[in-house]
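The freezer alarm interrupted the setup, so I double-checked each line after restarting. Inputs confirmed:
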Amino acid sequence: MEEISRKVRQLHFVSRKLVDTIFAGNYHSVFKGPGLEFDEVREYSPGDDTRFIDWNVTSRMGSPYTKTFREEREVVLQVLVDTSSSLFYSSGQINKRDLAGHIFAIIALAAVANNDKVGSLLFSDRVEEQIQPRKGRKHVLKQITQILAVKEGRKGSNLALACKTASQTMKRRGICLILSDFRAAGYKTELTMLARKHDVIAIRLTDPLDRELPASGLVQLEDPESGQSLKFMGNRKTRQQYSEYWEHERYLWHKTCQSAGVDVLEISTEDDPAVKLLHFFERRKKKS
Amino acid sequence: MTVVYPESFWLFIPLVLLIIPAYFNYRKGHRLLGKLAGQWRFDRISQIYLVRTLIYWSTVLLFFIFSILALAGISWTKEAVRDESDGLDIIFAVDISRSMLASDVSPDRLGRAGELISSITAGYPSGRFGLVVFKGEGEVIVPLTEDRIIMETAVNSLSPAMFTAPGTNLAKGINRALTAFPEGSPGKKMIILISDGEALSGNARTAARECSIQGIEFIVIGAGTAEGAMIYNADGSVVSDSEGQAVVTKLDLAELTGIAESASGRYYDLSDVKTPGLVLDDISSVLGGSGIEGMRLQNRTSYRGFLIAAMVFLVINLAASRIRWSRWY
Amino acid sequence: MLTFESPSYLFLLILLPVFLYLRHFSPASDRGLRISAGIWRKGTVPLKQGGVKLILLFSSVLFWVGILLLTLTLSGPSISIHEKIHLNRGADIVVVLDQSPSMAARDFPPETRLDAAKNMLNFFVSARKNDAIGLVSFGQEAVLKVPPTTDYGSFLRRLDECHIMELGEGTAIGMGLAVAVLHLSESRADQRVIILITDGDNNAGEVQPLSAASMAAQMGIRVYTIGIGAEGDIPFEFRNPETGQILSGVLKSSFDEDLLTELSEMTEGRYFKATSPGTLESVFRSIDSLETIEERVRIQVRTVPLYRIFIMAALLLILADLLIRKVLLREVL
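Predicted 3D structure, all chains:
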């Protein structure tokens, strides 16, 4: 527990700096609100759009009054975090779960800096925890703690169920972020449904080991989720089969997201998530 | 404690060599673990890997060590086995190589051997005797018989010229003697080997051990002296080697006592005047049995204990690789 | 025959499937480094590596056969050899065989008389179990070739080495008999028998057949005499062992039936006439049936332990498995 809170503080410290300097603004411009909301009625001044003249008030006061609007800004950010055992692996310095925590921290803090509500949904083969969207930095820190406190041992990634639950709980249009390794199948329908209502971004957590195995002799690995073992010779033929398999899986993921209208981003455990996210935001700004 | 098959211990040498693949295996595994496990858990995992590797290879080595100990046929105790034999069959195995003509024992080694055989056959009139002579090959001269006359004749005609077969092969002599015991005889069996021990080929100790395993009594008589003597040809000239040096033949005491030991038998010196008496004493003690009537003591090799220990280590080995040492590995 | 000294250890074999299960089939058998290697509800990465799997299977088979052998070793495998031990003395029989040139006559076509006699002796000896059998051969003189022994192997080897005219040209029946009697004189056997096989007259030697026979009679030795060969003109051919010359011709065969009858009668034996292969065989059959002693035997079981072979084989198999996995396939984790 001690270690987790230390980690949270560290993550908070690093991310806050990033958010304050770069991400808050970027976040604001990339994730616009769903529409305009009525603000006040003031006297018409020349140049105002005549469409917005409030005729009721005008007739009562005798001079033209117009309605003013402001952008609706209270956006809800819902983050779906995969907490299955398959995330507890990487060949690098940090594992995928830590990477997920890191990304969550950056985006959630940026959201909070823009006065948005942040909620999260932790899932494995079922929905493990659901935290209602609320404003405030403290609320975000609580969620980071929750993500980092997840112990290895949860089996399965029921992404379909997570998407369905998110669709049901998010009443208003919001932003939905999925942090997962997408080692799941059969989530296409639910993802499409979710993307129809919300702005969905799929962030795929990857690792160099997802692409390539090191050359070796006979090795026995154990899949932490299914408990099945994978016994293989690390020779050229086997390694090629392995690479081809995961390359194909990646292609399928891309296609699924594309057809569902989901924006995609891949972040590897080797990468600096801040850099990757920044690139992503800039790309999205240009698009919109 | 006696070790019946001490040559099994040679197997320890290749066993030590097993450490080399074990070490390289560990190094390779450690490197691979660095690539697969990731830095975030590498310290923990490499510790566990070291422990697992140590347990794996040490149990494997212990398995082999104890199996080899089982192979060696170590025996601590003697067990009594039923023995209903009656009478004694004795085969004399006499070395008739040229070196047996050396006269460091009077009149010469072969002559003295003949005298010894005669006094033994005379001292034990109810026995059956046979005579095997050997050089490079063994040959049954007198099959096991009660006929003392032919025995006497054969003994008197002992000479290197009895047949031609180059070399001296004690093992073949002993093995020939082993086959000279006919089947179905109720008697105990004894081989009396008379030689100067100068064997050129053959593993006499293994052959001797086979006798002991088959329960055959074994007596080795060493012919000659440590100082040795020259050998004379029929024309009186000294036998010399290719460089013209006179060949001196000596008694190989170490070899002969080694053979006696392998066969758990006794060793006597041919030149000793007490030898015929001692051999006859041995014969009568064999006939009298060793203590209990109708029983005879035999080495009991306790391989089972070692084997069980070896298999326990193998089970530990299997179990250790099945245990989850940490949630990562 | 394979036997087990302590078969109760064979119950340990029950444990074998247990370990086999633990090693290869139980869920715990999949322990390894935990790395995600598949997709949830889709299974692990399918890798085609049939060759490696085949080698692993082979290696496992080696290993488990090794373990099986070790388990069997615990129960003390050994080969038990049943040996018939004769408790009473058999008869002492000395065969006196004529080796004069006339024995080369071929009236047992294609064999000579000597060959026929040798074959029949082979047959005779293999039927005896406990009787010491010796061999005296004679020509001009007589020698003891084999002392009475139960070592039939030696006897048959020496018999095989007998040749025509080894001992000169004569037929010293008396000498042959005398040598046989001499070597039987010290025998303590209850029954002592001489079987004389000849085809001619006594024409050499210092001892007359009758005096030798009376010596035998005094000692209670029975003499069976076999007159071998047909009468008349018989072709013969043989090699003189001294000169290497091949001699052939026609033999005018006849033998002194009266003498042989008298010899056997003096010693309470019998005289047989063997003129053809069939008769020779029946002669030996009747001698065989005449000279039977009730045998008393004990079966002795000698066990030769096999544990070393078992352990060595097991060690080799287990070592092979280890080397295949650790060196050939470089199994590390």
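Quick read of the result. Chain A touches chain B through 18 residues (CB under 8 Å).
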